[in-house]
Design brief:
Pfam families: Ala_racemase_N. It contains 9 helices and 8 strands. The chain has 233 residues and is α/β, with parallel strands linked by helices. An 8-stranded parallel β-sheet has the order 7-6-5-4-3-2-1-8. α3 links the parallel β2 and β3. It binds pyridoxal-5'-phosphate.
Length: 233
């Protein structure tokens, strides 16, 4: 193992832990209410292994091919895999093979496809409805008006379990304001589905704002592993 890299990641993890603990304290929430998901996209399986050695149990990825390879290489580790990227239906079979939760469920066809493949694989996949907190459909996410309906569909579909909601803060708006709308939607979903307790919000730049608005899961990449090299999709 690369000791220098391990020390670097350990330092990043300690810093992120400090920020989460501080945000919880400021919000008057117990630290255990917030789960850290390490988003490892563009970083190698060796980094996932280092994170696991440091006690991280939740890993997030956003592209199927890369995630599939990494999950396979790390199959011996006790990890929960979160798929957080936009998902095409033709990738669903592959994603269902390794992901425990899909955070980016934003349309009916995707619910049906995940359910079908999960039943086929004899798995149960946690699904979060991704909410578009702005009006830019290009970035993924269901419109707020469609969220309750989609949640009901997930809850009624075999092979999937409704976990809750996910969002990315919109560009050009104070993230706390957007996360407050997400929390209100999450409470509306929970009124009908009390088990749908997950609010996946907050990344390296805005995790404190998300924790202040009730996030239960923060998805952190850069602050743990460093700045990603730009890549072409
Ligand atoms: C990359 C990514 C993250 C992590 O972002 P950072 O700013 O690097 O912490 C979180 N959520 C999603 C959906 C991502 O694609």
């Amino acid at each position: 193992m690369d000791i220098a890299r391990k020390n670097q990641i350990a330092a990043g993890l300690a810093e992120v832990e400090k920020r989460i603990a501080e945000a919880c304290r400021a919000a008057g929430r117990p630290r255990e209410e917030v789960t850290l998901i390490a988003v490892t996209k563009t970083y190698p399986a060796e980094d996932v292994r280092i994170l696991a050695g440091l006690g991280v149990t939740e890993v997030g990825e956003n592209r199927d091919q890369e995630a599939a390879d990494k999950a396979h290489a790390c199959a011996d580790l006790p990890l929960t895999w979160h798929f957080v990227g936009q998902l095409q239906t033709n990738k669903v079979r592959s994603v269902v093979g390794y992901a425990d939760l899909v955070h980016s469920v934003d349309r009916s066809r995707l619910v049906a496809a995940i359910g079908r493949e999960a039943v086929r694989a004899e798995r149960e996949i946690g699904c979060l409805v991704q909410v578009a907190l702005d009006d830019d459909p290009g970035r993924g996410g269901a419109r707020p008006a469609d969220v309750l309906g989609l949640a009901d569909e997930i809850a009624a579909t075999e092979g999937v379990r409704l976990g809750g909601l996910m969002a990315v803060a919109p560009l050009g708006e104070e993230p706390g304001k957007a996360f407050a709308r997400l929390r209100d939607l999450a409470l509306a979903v929970q009124a009908g589905h009390p088990g749908a307790t997950i609010i996946s919000a907050g990344m390296s730049g805005d995790l404190a704002e998300a924790v202040a608005r009730g996030a239960t899961h923060v998805r952190v990449g850069t602050a743990l592993l460093g700045r990603r090299k730009p890549f072409v999709r």
